[in-house]
Design brief:
mainly alpha; 2 domains; 16 helices; about 0% strand; globular
Length: about 425
C-alpha cells in the first residue's frame, strides 16, 4: 500500500505538472514563432476552452472519487462526460457565432474546446483508476499526452506557423491515447466497456448524476469565469493587450498547479476521514494544505518582485516593464484563487454545494455589473485589479463558510 501511495504521488505529480505546464509552454511557442498578436488569440481561445471544460467536467472527479458508497456505476460517470461533450461542442459553436468571431478565431476556439472535451472524458476514467488505487496510471497518461501534444504542436507550428493546424495536433494526441491507453487500463480493472450493455441504466444514472452535481458544475463554471470576465472585456476594449494579459496570468496557473499536486492525492483519504467522522484530523489536513498554499504564494510574490519582469522579457522576447504593476497584482489574485480552489474541493467533499454556487454567482454577478457600468473600457491593470479583488473576497467568504461547517460537524459529534 505504501509503495502504491508513493507511485501515486510521483506519477500524479509529474503528470499534473506536465499537463498544467503545457499551456504556458504552448504560449511561449506561439509568442516566439507567431508573434504577440497570434499569442493573444491563442491565449484567449484557451481561456474560453477552459470555461467550456468546466461545463464538460460537470460533477468533476472530486465528486466521483468521493462517492464512497458506490451510489452510481462508473460507466454512468463516463456516460455523463460523453453526453456533455456533445452539448459543449454545440455551445462553443453558438458562442463563436454570437460574438461574431472570424473563421480563424472561431476554429482555434472550437478545436481547443475539443481538446478539453477529450480531457473531461479521460478525467472520468482517471476517477475509476483513482478509486482503485491506480492514480499513478492516470499520472502516466497525463505525462504521455502532455509530451506528445507539445511535440506534435511544435512540429506542426514550426512547419506551417498555423495555430489551428497545431491545435488539431493536440486533438489527435489526446484522442489516440484515450483509446489506446486510458480505456484499456480501466478494462483491466473492472472490464469497463463504455456504453455497451445496460445503456438504458447508464443513461438514467447519468442524468441523475447531472442533477445531483448541478451545483458542482455551477461552482466549476463560475470559478473559471472569475478570471475570464476581465479577459473578455479586455478583449473587447483593448485587444492589443490581450496577449500580454494571457502571459502575465500564467502565475495563476503556477500557484494553482502546486496546490493540485498536494490536493489531488489526498482527496480519497479526506473523504474517508469525513465518512468515519475524523473531523479533527480532516481539519488539520486542510489547514496544512492552506498553509502550504500561503507559503507558495509568498515565495512566488517575492520572486516575481525580484525577477518577474526580467524573466518574462527573456522567455517571451518582449518588453514587460510597463506591466510590472499588473504582474504583481495578479500574483496576489493567484494566491487567493488557489485558496478558493482548495476550499471549493473541501466543501464539495462535505457535499456543501449550493452555498459555493451562491457565493461565486453573487461575486461574479457584481463583477460583471462593475464592468458594464464603470469599467468596461479598463486596460490590463484595471482588469487584473478587478480579478484580484474578486478572488480575495471569494477566498475570505469561502473560508468563513468552511469554518462554520467544520465546527458544526465537530459539535454534532460531541
Amino acid at each position: 500500500m505504501a509503495s502504491t501511495i508513493k507511485k501515486d504521488y510521483f506519477w500524479n505529480t509529474l503528470g499534473v505538472f506536465l499537463q498544467n505546464a503545457l499551456s504556458p509552454l504552448l504560449l511561449i511557442v506561439v509568442t516566439r514563432i507567431n508573434g504577440i498578436d497570434d499569442s493573444g488569440i491563442f491565449s484567449y481561445a484557451f481561456s474560453v476552452a477552459i470555461i467550456f471544460w468546466a461545463i464538460a467536467m460537470w460533477g468533476g472527479r472530486t465528486y466521483q472519487v468521493s462517492d464512497t458508497t458506490k451510489r452510481f456505476q462508473v460507466q454512468s460517470y463516463i456516460a455523463v462526460r460523453l453526453i456533455l461533450g456533445i452539448l459543449v461542442l454545440i455551445s462553443a459553436l453558438i458562442f463563436c457565432i454570437s460574438n461574431g468571431y472570424d473563421v480563424e478565431k472561431s476554429s482555434i476556439i472550437v478545436t481547443l474546446v475539443c481538446v478539453k472535451i477529450i480531457e473531461s472524458i479521460a478525467d472520468s476514467i482517471y476517477g475509476v483508476l483513482q478509486t482503485n488505487d491506480r492514480l499513478y496510471v492516470a499520472g502516466r497518461s497525463l505525462m504521455y499526452k502532455s509530451i506528445g501534444g507539445l511535440a506534435l504542436f511544435l512540429i506542426i507550428n514550426a512547419l506551417s506557423q498555423d495555430i489551428f493546424l497545431s491545435c488539431l495536433g493536440l486533438v489527435i494526441v489526446n484522442a489516440m491515447l484515450v483509446v489506446a491507453y486510458d480505456i484499456p487500463a480501466v478494462q483491466k480493472l473492472q472490464n469497463i466497456v463504455p456504453l455497451r450493455g445496460e445503456v438504458k441504466v447508464y443513461m438514467i444514472e447519468s442524468f441523475e448524476i447531472m442533477r445531483q452535481t448541478l451545483a458542482v458544475c455551477m461552482v466549476s463554471f463560475l470559478a473559471a469565469f472569475s478570471l475570464n470576465i476581465p479577459r473578455y472585456y479586455l478583449d473587447l476594449s483593448h485587444p492589443d493587450q490581450i496577449g500580454y494579459f494571457g502571459i502575465i496570468a500564467m502565475p495563476v496557473t503556477l500557484v494553482v498547479l502546486v496546490i493540485t499536486f498536494i490536493l489531488q492525492p489526498n482527496i480519497v483519504n479526506l473523504s474517508r476521514q469525513l465518512k468515519i467522522k475524523e473531523y479533527t484530523q480532516f481539519n488539520k489536513t486542510v489547514n496544512r494544505i492552506m498553509a502550504v498554499t500561503f507559503l507558495v504564494g509568498l515565495v512566488v510574490t517575492i520572486l516575481t518582485y525580484m525577477v518577474g519582469v526580467q524573466l518574462l522579457d527573456i522567455i517571451f522576447g518582449l518588453n514587460f516593464s510597463a506591466y510590472k504593476t499588473a504582474l504583481m497584482t495578479i500574483i496576489i489574485g493567484a494566491s487567493s484563487s488557489a485558496l478558493v480552489a482548495i476550499l471549493i474541493n473541501m466543501l464539495t467533499i462535505m457535499r456543501k454545494l449550493w452555498i459555493q454556487a451562491f457565493v461565486l454567482f453573487i461575486s461574479n454577478f457584481f463583477l460583471v455589473l462593475v464592468y458594464i457600468f464603470f469599467a468596461k473600457n479598463s486596460d490590463i491593470v484595471g482588469s487584473v485589479i478587478m480579478f484580484t479583488i474578486t478572488a480575495t473576497v471569494q477566498a475570505l467568504v469561502f473560508y468563513m463558510v468552511y469554518f462554520y461547517e467544520i465546527r458544526k460537524l465537530r459539535n454534532e459529534k460531541t
